[in-house]
Amino acid sequence: MIGMAKPPDRLDVLTGTWFTMGDIACAEGAIAAGCRFFAGYPITPASEIMEHMARRLPQVGGVYVQMEDELASMAAVIGASWAGVKAMTATSGPGFSLMQENIGLAVMTETPCVLVNVMRGGPSTGQPTKMGQQDVMQAKWGSHGDYELIAIAPSSVQEMFDFTIEAFNYAERYRCPVIVLADETVGHMREKLVIPEPEEVEKRLVSRKRPRVPPGEAFAPFMPDPEDLVPPMPHFGEGYHFYATGLTHDEWGKVRTDSAEAHFKLVSRLCDKIRKNKDKIIKYEGLWLDDADVVIIAYGIVSRSARAAVRLARKEGIRAGLLRLITIWPFPDEVVAEVGERAKKVIVAEVNYGQIVREVERRVDWRKVVFFPKLGEEFHTVEELLNAIRAARGEAGGRGS
C-alpha cells in the first residue's frame, strides 16, 4: 500500500488515502469491520487477502491461521464465529467448490461469517491468474438443500473495502454466510482507496443479537424474533447450554430428523429471513433507466465498461441505460422485471457462458434479451459494448433522444 496515513505497523486500523489493490482493500475493510479471525488456504487470485491478513491481524489483536485446505478453513471460520469473533475466509473457483458443504453448515447453524470469492476462469483449474465471473450460480446453489444467503459484487477498489464492511453487517444482522463476489480484475487492480476514521466506520457497524436472559436460565437458542425471523445468538463458553448442529433441529436445538413439520418450519424460516427482508438487502445502480430503449445489465468489472458505453451511446442519440447489479443474491427480480417491461432490448454482459442471463430471462420476455458472453481472461471493452448497443437498437427500431 502507498499513501499518507497511519503507518502499516501501527497496532490499529488504518485511515487516510491510499493507492492499493482490491484484495488489500478487502482485507483492510474486514479489519475495520471488526474481523479478528481469518482462516484460509492460498489460491490465486485471492491469496493477497490471506497474505495481508496474516501480517495485519496480529497487529490488531486478531488471529490468522493457514489451514490444510479450504474445507477446514470454512469449518474454522464457523467455529470462531460461534466463539464470538467476527470471522472470514477468502478463496477462488476450486477452493470455493470445496467450501460448499460447510457453507451449508453455516446456513443451517445460522452462523454469521464472510467469504470472499475472487472469481477466475474455470471449470476445474481453468485460468488461475485470469478473470472470470463463473461462480455466480455456485454462490447461490453450490451447497445442497433449500437455503438463502447474500452475495454482493464490488466493481472498484473502494467498494472492495466498503462492501466487505457491508458483508459483515449483513452476516451479523441476518445470521448467515455472506459472499463478497469479486472478480480477478477488481481484486488485482490498483486504485485510490479512502479509509475513514474508525469512529465513522463504527457508526455503520451492526452487531449480532444476543440472548436476553443470563446463562443458566431456560433459553431456546434458535427461537426467532417474529419481526425479522432471526434468533439471538449465544456464544460457546458463556455458560449457555445448547447444541449447534447441521441436523434438522427445533428452536431448542433438539435434533428432529424424524419430523417433517420441524424440517419445514426450520428450512422455510432460514429462507424467509432473507426473502422477507430482501427490500432491505437488495442494492443496485441505475443509469438512464426511465426512458432507455436498450438496457445493459452487468455487474463487477463489466459494469464499468458498460457505464462508459452507455454514456457514449447517449451522445450518439441512442436511449441506452445501465442496470448495475450490486446485490446478486437475493436476485433483484422486481427491478429486472420493471426494466424489462420498459426497454425494447436488454443486453446481459457477463464473463461466463450464461449465468445471470438465466435469471434475467425468468423476468424479461426472452425475445428482448441479448446475451453477450466473454470467456478467456478478457472482459468486455467499451467499444464492444457500444457496438452491442447499436446493434440492439437497430433490432428494436429504437427512437432517437
Q: If you average the pLDDT, what whole number results? A: 95
Helix percentage: 25-40%
The percentage of residues in β strands lies in 15-25%
CATH homologous superfamily designation of the largest domain: Thiamin diphosphate (ThDP)-binding fold, Pyr/PP domains
SSE map:
Blueprint lengths: L1 E4 L10 E6 H11 L4 E4 L6 H10 L6 E4 L3 H13 L4 E5 L1 H6 L1 H10 L3 E9 L5 E5 L4 H6 L8 E3 L4 H18 L2 E7 H5 L1 E6 L2 H7 L55 H16 L2 H4 L2 E4 L6 E5 L3 H14 L4 E6 L1 E3 L3 H10 L2 E6 L5 H8 L5 E5 L8 H15 L5
Parallel strand pairs: 3-4, 3-5, 5-6, 6-9, 8-9, 12-13, 12-15, 15-16
Antiparallel strand pairs: 1-2, 2-10, 6-7, 8-14, 11-13
Helix pairs in contact: 1-2, 1-7, 3-5, 12-15
Describe the structure.
The chain has 401 residues and is of the alpha/beta class. The protein folds into 2 domains: 2-204, Rossmann fold (3-Layer(aba) Sandwich), CATH 3.40.50.970; 285-396, Rossmann fold. The chain contains 15 helices and 16 strands. It has helices spanning 22-32, 47-56, 70-82, 93-98, 100-109, 136-141, 157-174, 184-188, 198-204, 260-275, 278-281, 302-315, 333-342, 356-363, 382-396, and strands at residues 2-5, 16-21, 37-40, 63-66, 87-91, 113-121, 127-131, 150-152, 177-183, 190-195, 284-287, 294-298, 320-325, 327-329, 345-350, 369-373. Strand 6 and strand 7 (127-131) form a beta hairpin. Helix 1 runs parallel beside helix 7. The protein starts with a strand and ends in a 5-residue tail after the last helix. Mean pLDDT is 95; it is low at 4-10.
